[in-house]
TrEMBL record:
It comes from the Bacteria. Pfam families: HTH_1, LysR_substrate. Residues 1-59 form the HTH lysR-type domain. This is LysR family transcriptional regulator. Belongs to the LysR transcriptional regulatory family. One of its GO terms (molecular function) is DNA-binding transcription factor activity. InterPro entries: LysR-type_TF_proteobact-type, LysR_HTH_N, LysR_subst-bd, WH-like_DNA-bd_sf, WH_DNA-bd_sf. Keywords: DNA-binding, Transcription, Transcription regulation. The keyword Repressor does not apply.
Amino acid sequence: MDQFSAMQSFRRVVEHGSFSAAAALAGQSHTVLSRQVKNLERQLGSQLLNRTTRRLQLTEAGALFYRHCVQILDQMEAMTLELSEHQQQPSGTLRLSVSSAFGELELGHWLPGFVERFTGLQIELSCTDRFVDMLDEGIDLCLRVTDHLPDSNLVARTLAPSEVILVAAASYLKRLPTAITADNLGEHPLLGYNRLAQPQRLQLVGPSGSQREVLMPSRVSANSPMALRAAAIGGLGIASFDRFIVHDALQDGRLVQLLPDWQQPARTLYALYPQSRYLAPKVRALLDYLQDYYRAPRWLM
């Protein structure tokens, strides 16, 4: 049995949810694919799929084998592309995951230029704020802005710093009897990002290095940074954002930065990708492009 071909067939069956769909995609018969998977199970001594008349379900052994299949097949594909002369110009589908705010505010600045340069690529974009399992979901590259990277087998390439700042609308500030200071900050409502463990709590470091923790009342909370941005522009309270999220609103006066001498824990824009000896040309092309673009982030200019 051609084990490599059988692994490809098994992966197609899992990812397309049925032998029929996988067979149609591969231009093979249902019988051939079914025989390949059964031979794999016989060779491995483990059942990989639970089959019913309505659906297929991975067994525990099947899920483990699938993860290894994806890694091995992707590495083989990357190695083949890297060694092939005609693949020096990246091609194929590039699966990119970004957070929702980053996708809405940043992609329009650099993605058109990237697509124009690499015309052989098709971009499959996923905008989500949830945790992404890159291997299970077939993601080639993930862009995230964070102050903490969990332990994982992913490679993290630093692209740019992302300062976190306090902002409010001029309309909100005009209604106040006194100016906002570090001492009275806790009297004002904080528009909280409720995906955080403590959405109403701020950690601040003053000009002299003194640290302060401020617990602020809640008026509006949301699981969307863009919704909180709209609430801040609407004058509903104070908000804490990565500067890239409010850069345009600061420039045109819709928002005003507060307490510029006080800092919050800094964050970083990372490019994350699965560890591999062979990096696919399409991934390397995007990494190099992003590294060059973010040498001078627009929000720092």
